[in-house]
Design goal:
Retinol dehydrogenase; Rossmann fold; 350 residues; single chain; oxidoreductase; all-trans-retinol dehydrogenase (NAD+) activity; disordered N terminus; 47% helix; binds NADP nicotinamide-adenine-dinucleotide phosphate; NADP
Length: 350
């Protein structure tokens, strides 16, 4: 059937290239994506859960069947939730592939296995978090975050971009964060990895424009996914070696409760972010920056209102340490402030 993807289970490969399933197949045939049928080939990283899963399912279930989704994950044993969300679209508009963004070999194998290596839209979604006082985090742990959130994206772009440039078409999407634009206390390393990504892409976007290749950042605030759960599990296990008692107290008794409150009050769903991402893909002139949550527009605006950085740093300091009890009121005020003019500056899911 034209435009139909092969059953991905037939030729899935682990990151090391060994067969995932049928031992009789020795070579993975190129994934037939039939780009010539007018459908866009969309490769997404990190589809085993959360935002990546919801984007993959939403695009695969597109009513007009405009997309061939290559949903990737580093371990195909985690595919069940995605397959459940995709339903009967699996095998028609969606194929599964193994891809670990931390392995060059895995990236090369995955992209090399696509027909003509064609990727029309690359969605760099895979990412990990890290929270806590800097003193208690090892350099190795920090490198792991950069290896995934920064070099993982760079690896993907390096593999896909030359073909897009040659074809003079393509769209690269990066799942950044509000924390790629505004630093947040005790999120120092995660924030740094997203800032690095923003700087990298802001530079690259200018060159890519010359080749008619688009680059867009999606910048969500808090989103209810496994991300939040994994971070809280890590925090529960933390022993904070090297951090003084005051810092640990500020982290556990001041930062964590206010962070949980922010998630509850301002959190979006993974579906909200998938809707925003779909809008960016389908826009005739997609924006470079795309905040998904109107509640964060004033926070980011504050940063640009005072280029010395003083306004943001002192506002966050006061909110956290001096007016902790006013935090709830502040969130309510922010909700009121999300008027039309802020909406225009966002890519709202609605
Ligand atoms: N949740 C939020 O509050 C929030 C806010 C702003 C931005 N973001 C960003 O949104 C993106 C998706 O996060 P999420 O909230 O959907 O979290 P999630 O549910 O934890 O999903 C993260 C995905 O990334 C995958 N991944 C991690 N390391 C990988 C690697 N080396 N290679 C390939 N895949 C890898 C995970 O796969 P495994 O199952 O194998 O671990 C998982 O599928 C991240 O880039 C995150 O920084 C999240």
């Amino acid at each position: 059937m034209a435009g139909r993807l092969h059953d991905p289970l037939d030729f899935s490969r682990r990151a090391d290239g060994s067969p995932e399933r049928r031992a009789t197949r020795t070579r993975a045939p190129a994934l037939r994506t039939m780009a010539s049928d007018g459908r866009k080939v969309v490769l997404i990283t990190g589809c085993s859960s959360g935002i990546g899963l919801r984007i993959a399912a939403m695009l695969a279930r597109d009513e007009k069947k405009r997309y061939h989704v290559v949903a990737t994950m580093r371990d195909l044993k985690r595919k069940e939730k995605l397959l459940e969300a995709v339903g009967d679209a699996h095998g028609d508009t969606l194929a599964l592939r193994v891809l670990d963004v931390c392995s060059e070999e895995s990236v090369r194998q995955c992209v090399g296995g696509l027909e003509d290596r064609r990727v029309d839209v690359l969605i760099n979604n895979a990412g990990i978090g890290l929270l806590g006082p800097v003193e208690s985090i090892s350099i190795e742990e920090m490198k792991k975050v950069f290896e995934t959130n920064f070099f993982g994206v760079v690896r993907m772009i390096k593999e896909v971009m030359p073909d897009m440039k040659r074809r003079r078409s393509g769209h690269i999407i990066v799942m950044s964060s509000v924390m790629g634009l505004q630093g947040v206390v005790f999120n120092d390393v995660y924030t740094a990895s997203k800032f690095a990504m923003e700087g990298f892409c802001e530079s690259l976007a200018v060159q890519l424009l010359k080749f008619n290749v688009k680059l867009s950042m999606i910048e969500p605030g808090p989103v209810h996914t496994e991300f939040e759960v994994k971070i809280m599990q890590d925090v529960a296990k933390m022993e904070f070696p090297g951090a003084d008692a005051d810092t640990v107290r500020y982290f556990k008794d001041v930062y964590l409760p206010s962070s949980i409150h922010m998630f509850e009050a301002m959190g979006q769903s993974a579906d909200d972010i998938a809707k925003c991402t779909k809008k960016v893909i389908e826009a005739s002139r997609p924006r470079f920056r795309n905040l998904t949550n109107t509640l964060y527009t004033p926070i980011v605006a504050m940063k640009y209102a005072d280029e010395t950085g003083g306004l943001s740093i002192h506002t966050f300091y006061n909110l956290l340490f001096n007016f902790g009890t006013l935090m709830h009121i502040t969130v309510s005020i922010l909700k009121c402030l999300t008027c039309r003019c802020f909406r225009r500056r966002n890519i709202s899911p609605d």
